[in-house]
Amino acid sequence: FYKLSVRQNYYEYTDYKYENVFDPRYLEAGRPRSDANYEFGAVVQGVDLTRFKQETNAAVVKGDFTWQANRSNLIEAGVEGQLSEISFGSPGFLRPTNIGGRVVLQPHIGTEPEDPKVETYYPRQFSTYIQDRLEWRNLVLRAGVRLESFDANTTVPSDLQNPANAISGAPESTPKETSIKTALAPRLGFSFPLSSSASLYFSYGHFYQMPGLGNLYNNSNYKVLDDLQEGGISFGVLGNPNLKPELTVQYEFGLKQALTDKLGWEVTFFYKDIRDLLGVQFVSTYAAAEYARFTNVDFGRISGFTVALDQRPIGPISTTVDYTMQFAFGNSSDPRETANRREAGKDPRPRVIPFDWDQRHTLNATAIFAKPQNYIISTIFRFGGGQPYTPQIGSGF
After folding, report:
1. CA torsion sign, 16 to 18 to 23 to 26?
2. Terminal Cα distance for the chain, rounded
3. Which residues of 172-200 are buried (b: 16+ CB within 10 A; e: fewer)?
């Protein structure tokens, strides 16, 4: 049999004080002032001038096909395509301007190439897969492969040392089409019974994920670098439409056993090798200035095991308990960490350290008291060990 689906996804996000950049309340509030010693430089006078808008409109077509070839082989295949239109940026901006010796705010709609404005991009994604589930005697084997393709469908500067052609006398940069990123992801898994109440299983697979589209397209035309020759200007971390997908190679091995007809246990060992994580690259220009942009440079690894007990209903009560020990390490938890460390005068490339979400011990338990066709009462208990760094606590705590 087959299944075909077509859908459209729409997402809109805005971040501004007033919708219209010409709203007089912007000017009445005056030029914003902040205090570096108060709430990380929060605005203490005037209005926050941040203006951002994002719209994503995506059409998705997906088809899946399942075929029982014979008693031993179940073939599954599928294809998915997505065409997107993503617009984001600043819908107008306010710039402090000196008029008659007095600095005032002036609203602008981006008309010049270097002005911040809403940019539109049209990325394309495609994937297809095929898998065979083979049952032979007591062995169950799953083998498959997935092909994924992503096209940012835009351009990048041909010479990163003069990306905006703002350095006089330097070789000029020309727009160059981004390359189509294609990845082949094999998957393999099997399970084998040891007895009538126990079985071993193993799985191996490659899993690809593209970074967020904002990391690809944010200021990716490099027009903000028009003043780069002056040096000493902070442009933040620029997007990179030529980013590759992040790759996770995952291994899993486990044992599942029924202790009684009501109680079973399972132990699973896992290891994940993460490559091409998002990081930051510092690019030196012909004018000896530097800027930062995203690139695939970071890495990590995760290993551990999980032990679980599952008690099927005895009368009205059923319970589950699982414990996980995990080790998660990499060279950074945040793609911008490299840039932040360099700005603070520290080594921008630290050695392998724990990820900020690393948690050595976690324990979960559930209990359910159910009266069929009447009521269900459930409770969940969670316990976690400490994390390597003190987390930030929001004002709502």
Report:
1. negative
2. 51
3. ebeeeebeebebebebebebeeeeeeebe
User: What tens digit of pLDDT does each residue of 7-30 get?
Assistant: 999 999 999 888 888 888 888 877
Q: Using only C-alpha atoms, what is the Rg of the chain?
A: 27
CA separation for the pair 288, 280 (Å, rounded): 18
CATH number of 123-358: 2.40.170.20
Q: Give me the count of residues in the chain.
A: 397
Mind listing the pLDDT tens digit for each residue in 261-307?
999 999 999 999 999 999 888 888 888 888 889 999 889 999 999 99
Q: Is 72 left (phi over 0), alpha (psi -120 to 50) or beta?
A: alpha
Distance CA 333, CA 128 (A): 31
Burial of 3 (0-12, 13-18, 19+ CB in 10 A): exposed
